[in-house]
Amino acid sequence: MNRAVIDLWVGLFVAMGLAALLFLGLKAANLGSTDIGKTYSLQARFDNIGGLKVRAPVKSAGVVVGRVGEIRFDPESYMALVSMQVDVRYQFPRDTFATINTSGLLGEQYVGFEVGGDPDMLKAGDTLKKTQSAVVLEKLISQFMFDKASGDEGK
Amino acid sequence: MSRMQQILRQIGHQVTERLWRLGFASRFLLMTVLYSGTALKRFHLTIREIYFTGVLSLIIILVSGMFVGMVLGLQGYDTLQRYGSSEALGVLVALSLVRELGPVVAALLFASRAGSAITAEIGLMKATEQLSAMEMMAVSPIARVVAPRFWAGVISMPMLAALFSAMGVLGGYLVGVKLIGVDEGAFWSQMQAAVDFRQDIMNGVIKSFVFGVLVSWIAVFEGYDADPTAEGVSRATTRTVVTSSLAILAADFVLTAFMFRGI
Fold it and tell me: What is the mean pLDDT of each run of 10 residues along chain B (263 residues)?
């Protein structure tokens, strides 16, 4: 076979392979679009983090503004210490309220920021004072059952 | 007692032979890499082999990828809709293809389509004494015949795996969205939220690269090591397909254990 024809086919083959990789990167993965560039670190203590995982999203008003960087157990306060990497483009007031939410009934868990009204902003390395733990479904159900039972007795 | 000894001796013989062969194969790989200068300098030799191993494998890879993706779409939908989460179909299709099925199935197909051909070609060259003739002319058969085929396999494999995965995602999209009617926006957006470029896609590429090295290595070695008879070449071809399939699956387990151990 002619060398020029072979060169053409191999060139086409390599171009197709790279195009497939690009397709996977842009269409199947989130390359480029929601990539978080420079970040600063914030900490928060929670009584119970439920099923929160490292790399879970940090959202404010439903928009991803950062990722969970590290989860540790604090042996002094017996609480979970969660450090988050937040995009430098976004600043939050000092009285921002961190909650652990679940997307959907069985979905993944994420940290939600509810913004307060303090004029001072959080700086890198600061700790969020006000937090709310993850809702544990079993606790909620058993509470509901006990309330129901005691309510029936009262009648 | 002597019967016992005989069995032990048999086992010992088998183990030593395997080990010897493995050592020989490793030295052969080292030789191939050392003699790659010609294959890389006169790159048209390698390009020619990429044509035979890569371009001619395109049809089987593309068609198989399409079908695997379509089957994943059908089966995945059947299971997911029982839990009311059929929108997660895109995640299921993309993650299983990019992480596992793309590299592994493409490598298995590559081993049986191109690996066996490489072994048969080199084995037949040996049987018809073409390799000895080259040595007589002071041309190293490893540099001229083996290295270009080896590098062609290593270069082609990641391309083929990426094409397989891309076709599979497309097949899953066709069946899931166009045929069954899963919501198109949810299909793509959930996929994009779940698939990470570095974690999932790049690890898939690394996997396919490792498989490319394994398959090409086994194929050229078996061909070079074949008995120079018709029967020897046929046995070497069979061994290539069997050994490289087992090697791919074993290496896949090891790589997966290192890459995706629940973060």
Answer: 89 93 93 86 88 92 95 93 85 92 95 94 93 90 91 94 95 93 84 84 93 95 92 94 95 90 58
Same-domain status, A43 and A30: no
Contact A58, A65 (CB under 8 A): yes
Q: pTM, whole model, 2 decimals?
A: 0.77
Distance from CA of A63 to the nearest CA of B (A): 13
Which residue in A3, A12, A21 has the most chain B C-beta atoms within 10 A of its own C-beta, making it the best mutation to test that interface?
A21
**B220 CA to chain A: closest CA distance, Å?**
21
If asked whether residues A113 and A52 sit together in one domain, one would say yes
Separation CA A29–CA B201 (nearest Å):
8
Same domain, A64 and A82: yes
Contact between chains at B192 and A7 (C-beta distance less than 8 A): no
| A135/A88 same-domain check | yes
Range of the domain at A103: 39-141
List CB contacts (< 8 A) between A51 and chain B: none
How far is Cα B59 from Cα B72, in angstroms, rounded to an integer?
Answer: 20
For residue A97, the number of C-alpha atoms closer than 13 Å in the C-beta half-sphere is 9
CB contact under 8 A, A24 and B196: no
* A26 lies in the same domain as A50: no
- Which residues on B lie below 8 Å from A27 (Cβ)? 169, 188, 192
In this prediction the ipTM stands at 0.83
Specify whether A62 is located in the same domain as A23. no
The answer to whether residue A152 sits within a structural domain is no
- Count other Cβ atoms within 10 Å, centred on residue A151: 9
